[in-house]
Write the C-alpha cells for this entry.
Amino acid sequence: MSEPAVETTVLDRYECRACGYVYEPEKGDDKDDIPSGTTFAELPMSWRCPVCSAKKTAFANIGPAGTASGFKENLGYGLGVNNLTPTQKNILIFGALALGFLFFISLYGLQ
C-alpha cells in the first residue's frame, strides 16, 4: 500500500490598502495573539490591521510569497522578466547597476 498524498496548501498573503502592512499566514500576528498558519479567512471579523487599525475589508489578496508579481494575464509579456519573482528582479536590477558601475570605474584605468 502506498501512503496517501499529503496536500500542501499555499497560503496567500494579504496587504492593507491603507498602510501597506502585509499579513503573512506563515508568521501570524503576534500583537493580537494570532498563531502562525492561520489563514486570512480564519481571522475574526473584529481583527484589525496592527499598524493602522484598518478593518479586515481593507485588505487585498496579493498571493503567496515568492510568486511573480502582477496580474496573471500579463505575466506572458515583457521578454520573460514578468515571470521573475520580486527577489529575482532585485538581483537583476542591482546586479546590472553594480556591473555598470564597475565598467565606469574601469575607464579610469585607460590612458
Summary: Residues 86-106 form the longest helix (21 residues). Residues 31 and 50 are 7 Å apart (CA to CA). The beta strands are 13-16, 22-23, 59-63. The mean pLDDT is 81.
